[in-house]
Amino acid sequence: MSGWSAHDIPDQSGRTAVVTGANSGLGYVTARELARKGARVVLACRSETRGRDAVRRLLEEVPGAEAEVRRLDLGDLASVREFADALPYDRLDLLVNNAGVMAMPYGTTADGFETQFGVNHLGHFALTGLLLPALLTTRDRPAGAARIVTVSSMAHLLGNIDPDDLNSERKYRRWIAYGRTKTANLLFTHELARRLAAAGAEVVAAAAHPGYASTNLQTAGPRAEGRAVAERLMALGNRVFAQPAGAGALPTLYAATAPGVRPDSFTGPSLAMWRGAPAPSRRAPWTLDDRAGERLWAASEQLTGVSYEALEG
Predict the structure, then answer these.
(1) Which positions are catalytic?
(2) pLDDT tens for residues 177-192?
(3) Rg of the Cα atoms in the chain
(4) pTM for this structure?
């Protein structure tokens, strides 16, 4: 893993990848580098306009790339179903659950879930379940097992989920709520990896995080509330302390493409979870709790109405 960079990504020719939140930041870099290595990439974006702009930019940077945009609003389960139903590929090699919101003011999704929990976890839980049949197929797969990579954060260390208050209805603290959704991402990966193994499925579920990477994620929350000073401070922190998005995307790209990536592994920057080349990352013990993973899974199935029937029986 030492010194691993985008140059080390194996050939992705013949592979089809879906990357959520790919119109900017880490998602855009992930989609661009996969396309640069030959993958056909679907940029799954809430805004089709921004998604089309991203595809144009990608094609300028990688002439001849196979890239397309499709609308996906993870805060609306109807949109998630529409995206999955309309995807024309019966075989999918890679799903990167990258999109997310961070430390937003309290709000709810179209389905009434707390926004961060609804977008960061439930939307991706539903999307993964709906795309699982395409990920499980072994027909004409060019480069080994399919992979599902879910992007978490070092902020998962802020706290464990509260199984009795998943939607933060009792008390809402934006950063704690964000950290809990990132814990949910890791618990989801843990339980998904266990279920895939039990079913004998040749699909690797892994997780990654970018450390502190400069994207628009940090400024979105303050901007939404009109907190100009906080927005400027976040932007200053990005300039002074953060690594660029290109470096922040490397752990995701490693988990998505490098040989030998283990199920339920967690890859992040090598230097104090903050910056540097991809490396195995510190992980809170509560993200490896089998019982918690099972409870979150059951609640997620109930809330989204999506069950992973392809892994049953």
Answers:
(1) 178
(2) 999 999 999 999 999 9
(3) 18
(4) 0.90
